[in-house]
């Protein structure tokens, strides 16, 4: 595995790969790797000649009261996991290199960024779109892989890539879960044992919603009520939002049709977690 720690060297290496007609599969991360990230690497290894992973904790996607300073970081651990998963190139740039003095260019995907998490985290997706656009320009991937747990992020990045003719295919891969159903996240490390137990209500309420829709429920208000009622039984869990939205525009639906995103954001103790499922039809199987 090759480790590249500067933008200029990564750009040079990318040019060499392109000259050799090698396809590039790209997995952008903020590190503290887990099975969700590694599953994306495996997908890249399956479909592309070269698997590139970036590790960069992006300061401009964190709000002033969010956890940038305490976000978990352990490069040595990440290096070992990346190597074991088969990463070919690990790109590990510094903040100074990514945002040099005088940096002044940002990318905003307008309507999609104001819904769901964007409503409670103003500017977050502007930071996400900006850093991913920069990474795409440096790495020049053929395919970029994102997890469905961050479905809104993947939908925004796909729209950005299409609108700006970036020439990269965006693949959204299934959420990876713990055996008990909890969506794997770097932030799970913050949870106490009791909070970890209470956090299961997120995936279980989504399962309940999927069950209702599978059995013919079309009224989003009834499904939302079922989700809210389950979550409110756990005192350590405070809902940020629960939404049933279209997968293209992220607008809340009046009737549950052929494909919807059911998304939850909630604070479990002090830790903000997100989870979702995509229901593709009334009779679709729901994720386990």
> What's the number of helices?
11
SS strand fraction: 15-25%
Main pleated sheet: 6 strands, parallel
Q: What proportion of the residues is helical, as a percent range? A: 25-40%
Any idea of the CATH class of the largest domain?
A: Alpha Beta
CATH architecture of the largest domain: 3-Layer(aba) Sandwich
Q: How does this structure look, described?
A:
This protein has 288 residues and is α/β, with parallel strands linked by helices. The chain has 11 helices and 9 strands. The chain is globular and about 55 Å long. The model is unreliable at 283-288 (pLDDT under 50).
Q: What are the defining features of this structure?
A:
2 domains; three-stranded antiparallel β-sheet; Rossmann fold; disordered C terminus; 11 helices; alpha/beta
């Amino acid at each position: 595995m090759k480790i590249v720690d500067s933008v200029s060297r990564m750009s040079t290496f990318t040019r060499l790969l392109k000259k050799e007609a090698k396809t590039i599969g790209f997995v952008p991360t903020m590190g503290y790797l887990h099975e969700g990230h590694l599953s994306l690497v495996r997908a890249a290894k399956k479909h592309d000649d070269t698997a590139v992973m970036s590790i960069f904790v992006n300061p401009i996607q964190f709000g002033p009261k969010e956890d940038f300073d305490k976000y978990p970081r352990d490069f040595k651990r990440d290096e070992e996991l990346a190597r074991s998963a088969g990463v070919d190139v690990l790109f590990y740039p510094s903040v100074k290199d990514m945002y040099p003095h005088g940096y002044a260019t940002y990318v905003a995907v307008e309507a999609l960024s104001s819904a769901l998490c964007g409503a409670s985290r103003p500017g977050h997706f502007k930071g996400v779109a900006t850093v991913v656009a920069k990474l795409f320009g440096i790495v020049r991937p053929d395919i970029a892989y994102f997890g469905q747990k961050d479905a809104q992020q993947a939908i925004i990045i796909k729209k950005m890539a299409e609108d700006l003719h970036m020439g990269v295919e965006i693949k959204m891969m299934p959420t990876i879960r713990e055996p008990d159903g909890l969506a794997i996240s770097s932030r799970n490390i913050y949870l106490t044992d009791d909070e970890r137990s209470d956090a299961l209500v997120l995936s279980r309420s989504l399962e309940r919603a999927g069950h209702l829709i599978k059995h013919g429920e079309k009224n989003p208000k009834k499904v939302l009520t079922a989700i809210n009622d389950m979550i409110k039984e756990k005192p350590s869990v405070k809902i940020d939002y629960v939404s049933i939205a279209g997968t293209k525009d992220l607008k809340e639906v009046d009737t549950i049709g052929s494909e919807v995103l059911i998304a939850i954001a909630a604070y479990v103790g002090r830790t903000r977690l997100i989870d979702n499922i995509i229901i593709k039809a009334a009779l679709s199987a729901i994720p386990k």
